[in-house]
Amino acid sequence: MVSRQSRQESIAPSQGTEVGLRGYRIRDIAKARERRREILMGAARAFAHGGYDATNMDQIAHECGLAKGHIYHYFRSKEEIFTEIRTEAITGAIEQLASVLPIASQDPELALRKAISWLIARVFERGGRYEPMLPNPVSLSSENARQIRTLSQRYEQLFASILRQGIEKGAFVSDDPKLMTFVILRAANAVATWYREGGRWKPQWIVEKVTEQLLRSVKP
Predict the structure, then answer these.
(1) What SS3 state is found at 17?
(2) pLDDT > 70? residue 8
(3) Which of 213, 190, 210 is nearest to 202 (CA)?
(4) What residue ranges do the domains of the chain occupy?
């Protein structure tokens, strides 16, 4: 499993000395973290365009504008890169969703609106465009696949809890919260596949319109 600790070992201090993945001294921690972020974003673009299995480290390096050897200063393999992309994205989504959960007990519609709007809006943020387009490849190791699956299930459970509270209060149609969650999440994430930058549909308009349509789908 690629733990959060191991993912950060290339930039974390060790006994007072800042060392990289291959033992070299890191002089600028902030710059190293930014470089890792650039690699993750470049890799996400490469995976989205070519698919995980067909993408190699040369293509990732090309997308990032770096030499392949430089990528290995930060990551051991493309699987480690992919796993970090997915786990960081889902962890961030869980944290955001947890922040709106308290609202659901009083106003489940507002909580659901906030959850859906954030999910769509992240498509237009730096680094958020391509992550929703990355299905989990069957070639992932069982440990990494399990890690991603566990986080995904946690997010889906939290999302379903908003719907469940809305159903109990009569704010949403009486249906299976798990099925409703799958439908809403797939529709919201699909924005990444059809949005075209520079088109006549602007990001904020898309966020508002898609959110409203998805909300209408669960109202009685």
Answers:
(1) strand
(2) no
(3) 210
(4) 4-216
| Token couple for 106 | 């009083």
Burial class (CB within 10 angstroms; exposed 0-12, middle 13-18, buried 19+) of 68: middle
Superfamily of domain 4-216: Tetracycline Repressor, domain 2 (1.10.357.10)
Compute the distance between CA of residue 46 and CA of residue 55 in angstroms, rounded to an integer.
7
pTM above 0.85, yes or no: no
Mean pLDDT in the chain?
Answer: 87
Contact between 43 and 8 (Cβ < 8 Å): no
pLDDT tens digits along 151-173: 999 999 999 999 999 999 999 99
Q: At what angle do helices 142-168 and 78-104 cross, to 10 degrees?
A: 20
